[in-house]
Amino acid sequence: MRLKKRRLIALLLALGAVVVWLIVNPASYESEFTQAVNDGADYAAEAVSAPDENAPLARDILEKLEVKGRAPKTDYSREQFYSGWPNVDGCSLRQRIIRREFGESAVLNECNVMAGEYDEPYTGEHMVFTEREQISKGIQIDHVVALSDAWQKGAQNISAEKRYELATDPLNLLAVDGDANKKKSDGDAATWLPLNKKFRCQYVARQVSVKYKYSLWVTEAEKNAISKVLENCPKEPAVGV
């Protein structure tokens, strides 16, 4: 009985010490709380978690896509999909995607990524950022399936709500080198592939997954280009399908 009382007293003393420490050091509490919120509510990371062993193969999903020619680009604009990055739980989706790519290296100021590093997927270079301005200038958020390409391959036939989902779906978003993204423009796999050959399998698998998810089609040339890439990685899984 005496032992239980001693343990209880020790526990109460320990809790009291923690409370006193937090009162004396409020900044420590705030930094830990901010980090926990950003990690726990990482919408972007949750949406692109690694597929399980039962995920369908990208090549099998490719065979399910309709093959057609491009529709006219008439009436296309980004506003047909969305206008600006939405907030997710109070944080810009752009910042969430960057946070996802930078992983544990991300230095946060509330929602904003101030610094960090990662292996950029399109070039294969390891990029290090020490200031937010560097990130703003060097990183762009790319739609893996370009919105213009989507518009010409079925998106103009789906609802405005579905187009919004396509434009803001983390599955279709990557934080990439700005210059590489400009070179890609609105190209499909038949006209542009990442310079980083090690990423090409993942890249086309993600394109196939997005097109399947949103009922978009591929051209014959596009399908051939994707098939050629997947020949080198026949076991590449689809993502989010």
Structural features, described:
There is one protein chain. The chain has 241 residues and is an alpha+beta fold. The protein has a domain of 130 residues. Helix content is 47%, strand content 12%. It contains 11 helices and 7 strands. Strands 3-4-5 form a 3-stranded antiparallel beta sheet. Strands 1-2 form a two-stranded antiparallel ribbon. It has a two-stranded antiparallel sheet with strand order 6-7. A hairpin with a 6-residue loop joins β4 and β5. α1 crosses α2 and α4 packs parallel to α10. It is globular and about 45 Å long.
The biggest sheet amounts to: 3 strands, antiparallel
How do the SSEs run, as a string of H and E? HHHHEEHEEEHEHHEHHH
Structural class: alpha+beta
Strand order of the largest sheet: 3-4-5
Query: How many angstroms separate the termini?
Result: 59 Å
Question: Roughly what percent helix?
Answer: 40-55%
Number of strands: 7
Mean pLDDT: 85
Strand content: 5-15%
From the alpha carbons, calculate the radius of gyration and give it in angstroms: 23 Å
- Estimate the global geometry from the Cα principal axes: globular
Low-pLDDT runs: 1-49
- Figure out the total of helices: 11
What are its keywords?
single chain; 241 residues; alpha+beta; 3-stranded antiparallel β-sheet; 7 strands; disordered N terminus
Topology:
Elements: H1 2-24, H2 26-40, H3 43-47, H4 58-64, E1 87-88, E2 91-92, H5 93-102, E3 107-109, E4 112-119, E5 126-129, H6 132-138, E6 139-143, H7 147-152, H8 160-168, E7 173-177, H9 178-184, H10 200-213, H11 220-230
Antiparallel strand pairs: 1-2, 3-4, 4-5, 6-7
Helix pairs in contact: 1-2, 4-10
